[in-house]
Every structure is written in C-alpha cells, then in structure tokens.
C-alpha cells in the first residue's frame, strides 16, 4: 500500500478523535497530533493535512468565541468538519481518485462513499439532537458528498486537497440552519430521481460528469426549498436547451458557430444559468413570498429564451443585426439578433410561463412575468454580449449569469405591479 494512501486513511481516521475535542478536555485539539505527524511524514499530503488542521482550528476558535460570548451564534459545527475530513480521504480513495474523474462512475462512487461514511461521522461527532434527526443527517452528508465530488473533479491537482475540504465544509455550513426537511422516504425518492436524471443526461451526451453532479445539487436544493414543480420548470430549460443545441447542428458546424463537444454541457453552463433560479427557490423556501416565485420564472424564462434565441436564431437565412447599431454582422457574433431568434425567445418564455400556470405554481400573471422577464432578459443578454463580452470584460457564462439576474428582477417587478 502506498504511503500516500496510508496517510490519507490516517487523516480520515482522525475523525474518531473528534468527540474528545472541547474546552474541558485534557488535550483540546487532540486530532491535531496525528495530522501533524502525517504532515511531517508524507510530503504529498501536506496540503491536505494543513487544510484539515485549519478547519479544525476554525471550528474550535468559533466554538471558543461562542462559548465565551453567549450573545453570538457564529459556530462551525464539528460534525460538518468531520464530513469534510471524509470527502478527500475515504471518498477519494474509494473512487481511486488520483486525478480528475473522466467518467461519471467514479464521481458516483465518491458520492456514495462520502455520504455513507459522512452519515456515520455526523452521528459519531455530533450532539444527540443531530443524531435524532435522520433527514438532516442524510441531507448534510449528501450535500458534502456532492460538493466534494464536484470540487475534486473541477479543481486542479495542486488545489484539490484545499478546495475539497474547505469547499464541501462551507457548502454544508451554508445549509446547516434549521429548516424543515421532508421525511426521509421522500428524500430518498428525490435522490434517486435526481441521480436517474443525471445519469440519463450523461448517457445521452447532454452533460459531462461535472455538469451531472452540478445538476443533482441544483435539483435537490430547488426541490427541498421550494417544490418539485419548480425543478420541473427548470428541467424544461435543460431539456429544451439540449434539444435545440442539436437543431440543424450540421449547418451550425458549417458556419463554425456550433456548441463545442457536440453540445455536451459543462458545469459552468449549468451554474451560469441555474444559480439565480436556485437562489430564488431557496429564498422562497426561507421567506415564503411569491415575489421570489415570479423572480424564479423571470430567470428561468431568460435562460430558456436566450438559449432558443441563440440555437434557433443562428440558423436564420437573414443576416443578424447588432443590437446596439442595427448593422448586419456575421452569424454567431456576440450581440447579433435576428427576427427568428426574437420569435424563438418569445416562444421559449411563453412556454415557461404556461408550464408554470399549468402546474399550479403561479396564476395567469405568471405568464406575464415569464414573458416580460424572458424577452427582456434575452435582449439584455445580447446587449451585454455586444458590449462587455465583446471587450473581454465578461465571458459567455458571466453574461448568462447577469442576464438571468436581470430577468429575475423583471419578474419580481411584475409581481410588485400586480
């Protein structure tokens, strides 16, 4: 067995010492001793050892602050740190992860191992109250596994041992507040549903492994904080986007404007179009205001309308015109618009609104929010493309993110007016 493997296993096993960390223990930071030994003994795990030790110190420091200042609620629970220890050690070793996951199978092994061992780690290190809440234990462990698997694949080798423990810990910490979760049977069903969708998208070559993990994260959070109907509306964007990417693909290739990799989506595309809808779903779950529902519709309609405007509009026989000057430009130029593309944008936005009304998510005004948000958001996307993107100030993914935020603002404005 390689020394690095033994060192990683040793780092993961230090979780067993976590229950003995505290103010009144003889050695308050007992797990620091084996981490220091691993740091000195194995050069390849020094970044990992230092990262895990830093998380432990952060948790202990915030605990002391909360212990000394009763008025503060800032605390990084030790059981979350425990899961962040599991991800880059047992999860990575089980997946045979010496590099980036080139296939979805390794990501799923990483996810399953981190979730299973993470559940045990939370029960072992957490207070009795957390152990009595199986839904929250499973939710946090799964979130740690998903974020860990994604960060492992998306990070460079030299950054991985820092990004995975810190990133997964921060994601779990962000969602560790007290929020009512569905019962564990429903949660298990949603996990199966999300993974089945992801595997289907991967097998159809609509998304790569990183994008699949990203979509599963978005799926779980949208459903748990809002409703499955919300995710089905967001899913319609994924399906339409993937379908119309292949629309007249040979012609787009001939014009050299086709999506790269045969239209396979990456995680940047997923997050640039989904972060704003995800934020609106979470805010709706926390505050319960329909303002966030209308904003959600505006952002999803923007993503849908913009994708259809690009994928269909680029096949128009007429030459596109720059949105800022109305001069004709070559197909595929950032900021170029066509009548066909504008029509496709309206149709995509209307589809989002009608689907929301049919599913019972919103009343008739939901169509207005989707249509206004989608159409204006799509054209705002073109305006950003002609200005900021053309000057290199924003990438295409950055433009998508800002445009969906603009569409959300328009959708919220419709709610405020009615």
Write up what this structure looks like.
The protein is mainly α. It is built from 17 helices and 2 strands. Strands 1-2 form a two-stranded antiparallel ribbon. It has 2 domains: 195 residues, no CATH class; 192 residues, no CATH class. It starts with a helix and ends with a helix. It is a multi-pass membrane protein. Belongs to the TMEM19 family. This is TIGR00297 family protein.
Key phrases:
418 residues; mainly alpha; 2 domains; two-stranded antiparallel ribbon; 1% strand; elongated
Topology:
Blueprint: H1 3-13, H2 32-41, H3 46-68, H4 78-94, H5 104-125, H6 128-131, H7 134-154, H8 157-174, H9 184-203, H10 209-225, H11 228-245, H12 249-255, H13 267-287, H14 290-313, E1 321-322, E2 336-337, H15 339-358, H16 365-389, H17 396-417
Antiparallel strand pairs: 1-2
- Mean of pLDDT: 88
Query: Low-confidence segments, ≥5 residues, pLDDT <50?
Result: none
Please tally the β strands and state the result. Answer: 2
Number of domains: 2
Described by strand count, sense and barrel closure, the largest sheet is:
2 strands, antiparallel
Strand content is: under 5%
What global shape is seen? elongated
Distance between the termini: 67 Å
What's the alpha carbon Rg, rounded to whole Å?
24 Å
- Write down the secondary-structure element order: HHHHHHHHHHHHHHEEHHH
Number of helices: 17
Q: Oligomeric status of the shown chains? A: single chain
Look at the helices and sheets and give the structural class: mainly alpha
Give the proportion of residues in helices: over 70%
